[in-house]
Design goal:
- By secondary structure, the chain is α+β, with helices and mostly antiparallel strands.
- The protein contains 5 helices and 5 strands.
- A hairpin with an 8-residue loop joins strand 4 and strand 5.
């Protein structure tokens, strides 16, 4: 599969698969091997990181950097391994990368985030809250499944439809939301 941070053509949700955790581990280990001196963590985020939650079968991984000061070196290093920097794709505090060639991993989205970046902090707050609160996880899954049925071929509408429930969960988690 390719690592491509680009729009999904079909919103396909599947039941949680324990393979996702193992696949993240393989990917994390490889990325730490090539990037470990430039980053401070590699985090599994997004719905595939929450046991029991249906998700699009795409791993989301955040490589965490100390600050933007190291981003040019990270871009250069990832470039040596076939990754193209795509910028923030409209989400502040998150730099997207894509890899065109086959690399032996399932499909994944790779992001590089500063440790104090909004995108990263929201990913962690949402993930950790959903992991600790099964009722919130079920509510979120219900919204996702409904939206996937409504917007099978419209990823933008699907994502926009999740905003209210995500903001609600983040507020419950004590994360400040500026709407």
């Amino acid at each position: 599969m390719k690592s491509i941070a680009e729009k999904t053509k079909v919103v396909e949700l599947v039941p949680y698969d324990p393979v996702w955790k193992a696949e993240f581990g393989r990917l994390r280990d490889w990325l730490l091997e090539i990037m470990g001196d430039l980053i401070i963590a590699a985090e599994h985020v997004g719905s595939t990181s929450v046991e029991g939650l249906s998700a699009k079968p795409i791993i989301d991984i955040d490589l965490v950097m100390e600050s933007y000061a190291v981003l040019p070196e990270i871009i250069d290093r990832l470039g040596q391994y076939g990754y193209e920097h795509q910028g923030n794709l409209g989400i502040e505090g998150r730099e997207a990368f894509r890899r065109e060639q086959e690399d032996g991993f399932m499909k994944y989205h790779l992001y590089v985030c500063p440790k104090d970046g909004k995108g990263y902090l929201e990913h962690i707050a949402l993930r950790d809250y959903l992991r600790a609160h099964p009722e919130a996880c079920q509510e979120y899954e219900g919204v996702k499944l409904k939206l996937a049925g409504q917007f099978l071929y419209d990823i933008d509408a699907y994502c926009k439809g999740k905003t209210a429930v995500i903001h609600s969960i983040l507020r419950e988690a004590g994360y400040p939301i500026n709407e």
